[in-house]
Each structure stands twice: as structure tokens, then as C-alpha cells.
């Protein structure tokens, strides 16, 4: 297990390095010049050149990358090109909104997908199972932006139960109000992503019902449902753990979009604004953090799968 973990850590670090190179190189080929934006439309070429020299943008790209990645390795993500504020402080402040939103969305998705997916598989061929399957298909096809707007109309405008947009100015100093502001965005992401996960859970459950060990348990006197719950669900759990990494990445992408819809001051909204402003240092720092988060989740999923599944350990 230790050797496997060390190998996965090495691959994780290598993946982060490759991602950092791709992020840095991609941002440098985008159109626009941050020095020109700072100087304004009336800035002279001399002023633009002076700003580029002050910000270090006139140096070779390789040196800029080495300085940036070396600082990241020591916890220094640099300073914003536009405001001069430390990028790490901005990331931590925005993550206080995005991280709880992602956790709440994942909890809602799992609470919806796991029981409904198993139930739709157990009741396959019945009206209730068909209704659950059709509902999942429809919800999975709904764009997350449209789902968010419909939920705003129902719960914020018609019923008035939840706020339509925004986040408390005091942040988490008022936890109740902060959670209330995140509930509708989390419900939007959780329902759509949960519908996608539910289809996978249903498929994995149907596959488990056909396994020999489930049939043997049923032949020994258990009902099909009892045999599935006692012996089939552990294999379903392994399959769900495997797909969770992809699902969490989907939740992260959806959070970037939903923060725009609900005007939440999170990482996604900051990323969109910084791309428009050409604040390269903040953009590359934000993208690296988001990419690193996805890679770490995949790493943890691999370790969990390896620890739980004895077949993985035998192959290793």
C-alpha cells in the first residue's frame, strides 16, 4: 500500500507540473495586453513599455514561469497585476464561498442519487422505477443555468423562501444567513449532478443483481432485495467511489457557472472577472488551485479504491 501511495503521489506532483506549464503557456497566447489596460486608451508606447518592465512582463517567458512556480512551491502565488494584493489571500477569501458550495452540492447529489438509483434498479419494470429513471434522464439533460433560473422563480420569487442572489456582506459571521444564500445554488448543482450520478448508480446496481454471489445468496433463501442489500451494494459502492472523482470535477465546473447566476463572490466569479481584466497572475493561480483540487480528489479516490478492493491489491 505504501509503495502504491508513493507512486500515486509522484504522479500527482508530475500532473501538477504539467498542468502548470499548460496553464502558463495558454494564458500567454491569449489576445490582449494587461500593461495596455493599465495604461488606458491614452497611454503612450513608452508608458506601456514602462509598465511591462515594472511588472516583469518584458522578461523571457521561461524565467517568468520559473519565478512563478518557484513561488507557488513556497506558498507565494504572487501579487495581482491590477491591484497588487497577494493572490493567495484572494484565493482563500473566495474559497470560503466556493468550498462550502461544493460540499453542499455533493451532499445533495449523493442524497438524491444513491437511494433513488438503487430504488429505480430494484423496481425495474414497475411504474415507480420507470418514473425515477425518466426523471433522472430529464434532469440530467437540463442545463445548470436554466435549472438555477427555474429554482429562483419557484423558491425565491413565487414562494419567497430563499434569497434569489447574493451573499451576506459579513460573510460567515452570520452562518445561518450564509447557508441560506448557498442553499439554492447548491440545490441547483446537486439536483443536476445527482441525476447524472443516479443513472450510474442504477446501472451499477443492475449489474450487481446479475452477479453470481447475489444469485447464490438469493438461492439460499434471501429475497432478491435482501441479497442485493447485503451482498451487492458493497460492489456498487466501489463503482460509485470510482466515478466520484469525475462527479466532483463536474460539480466544480458547475459552481463556476452558478456563481455567475447567483452573484456569489467565489472562485468562479473571480476567475471570469480576472480573465476579462487580463490579470494573468491571479488567473493562473486560480486555475492551478482548481486543477490541483481535481487531481487531489482523483488521488484520494484511487487510494480509497485500492484500500477497499482486494483485487486492486492483488494486481499491485
Summary?
The protein has 316 residues and is an all-alpha fold.
**Percentage of residues in DSSP E strands:** under 5%
Largest sheet: none
Q: Count of DSSP helices? A: 13
Number of strands: 0
Helix residue percentage: over 70%
The residue-averaged pLDDT reads: 83
Our count of domains comes out at 2
Rg from C-alpha positions? 24 Å
| CATH architecture grouping of the largest domain | Orthogonal Bundle
Low-pLDDT ranges: none
The 3D shape can be described as globular
Question: What series of H and E elements makes up the topology?
Answer: HHHHHHHHHHHHH
The CATH topology of the largest domain corresponds to: MetI-like fold
What is the SS-derived class? Answer: mainly alpha
Instruction: Report how far apart the termini are.
Output: 9 Å
Q: State the CATH superfamily name of the largest domain.
A: MetI-like
CATH class of the largest domain: Mainly Alpha
Q: Could you walk me through the main structural features you see in this protein, from its secondary elements to its overall organization?
A:
With 316 residues, the protein is an all-alpha fold. The chain folds into two domains: 2-73, no CATH class; 87-315, MetI-like fold, CATH 1.10.3720.10. Helix content is 79%, strand content 0%. The chain is built from 13 helices and no strands. The protein has helices spanning 2-28, 34-39, 45-55, 61-73, 87-122, 127-140, 144-158, 175-209, 212-219, 224-261, 267-277, 280-308, 310-315. α11 (267-277) runs antiparallel to α12 (280-308). It is globular.
Amino acid at each position: 500500500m505504501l509503495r502504491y501511495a508513493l507512486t500515486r503521489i509522484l504522479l500527482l506532483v508530475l500532473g501538477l507540473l504539467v498542468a502548470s506549464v499548460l496553464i502558463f503557456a495558454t494564458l500567454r497566447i491569449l489576445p490582449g495586453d494587461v500593461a495596455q489596460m493599465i495604461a488606458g486608451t491614452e497611454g503612450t508606447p513608452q508608458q506601456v513599455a514602462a509598465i511591462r518592465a515594472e511588472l516583469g512582463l518584458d522578461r523571457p517567458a521561461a524565467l517568468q514561469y520559473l519565478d512563478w512556480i518557484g513561488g507557488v512551491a513556497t506558498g507565494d502565488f504572487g501579487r495581482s497585476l491590477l491591484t497588487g494584493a497577494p493572490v493567495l489571500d484572494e484565493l482563500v477569501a473566495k474559497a470560503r464561498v466556493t468550498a462550502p458550495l461544493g460540499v453542499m452540492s455533493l451532499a445533495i447529489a449523493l442524497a438524491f442519487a444513491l437511494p433513488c438509483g438503487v430504488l429505480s434498479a430494484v423496481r425495474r419494470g414497475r411504474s415507480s422505477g420507470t418514473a425515477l429513471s425518466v426523471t433522472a434522464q430529464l434532469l440530467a439533460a437540463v442545463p445548470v443555468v436554466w435549472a438555477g433560473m427555474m429554482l429562483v422563480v419557484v423558491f425565491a420569487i413565487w414562494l419567497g423562501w430563499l434569497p434569489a442572489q447574493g451573499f451576506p456582506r459579513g460573510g460567515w459571521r452570520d452562518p445561518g444567513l450564509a447557508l441560506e444564500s448557498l442553499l439554492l445554488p447548491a440545490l441547483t448543482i446537486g439536483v443536476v449532478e445527482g441525476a447524472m450520478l443516479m443513472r450510474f448508480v442504477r446501472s451499477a446496481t443492475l449489474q450487481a443483481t446479475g452477479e453470481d454471489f447475489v444469485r447464490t445468496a438469493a438461492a439460499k433463501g434471501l429475497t432478491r432485495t435482501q441479497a442485493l442489500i447485503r451482498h451487492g451494494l458493497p460492489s456498487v459502492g466501489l463503482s460509485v467511489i470510482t466515478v466520484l472523482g469525475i462527479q466532483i470535477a463536474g460539480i466544480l465546473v458547475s459552481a463556476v457557472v452558478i456563481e455567475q447566476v447567483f452573484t456569489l463572490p467565489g472562485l468562479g466569479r473571480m476567475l471570469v472577472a480576472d480573465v476579462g481584466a487580463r490579470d494573468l497572475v491571479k488567473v493562473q493561480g486560480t486555475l492551478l488551485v482548481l486543477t490541483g483540487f481535481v487531481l487531489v480528489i482523483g488521488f484520494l479516490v484511487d487510494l480509497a479504491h485500492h484500500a477497499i478492493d482486494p483485487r486492486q491489491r492483488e494486481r499491485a
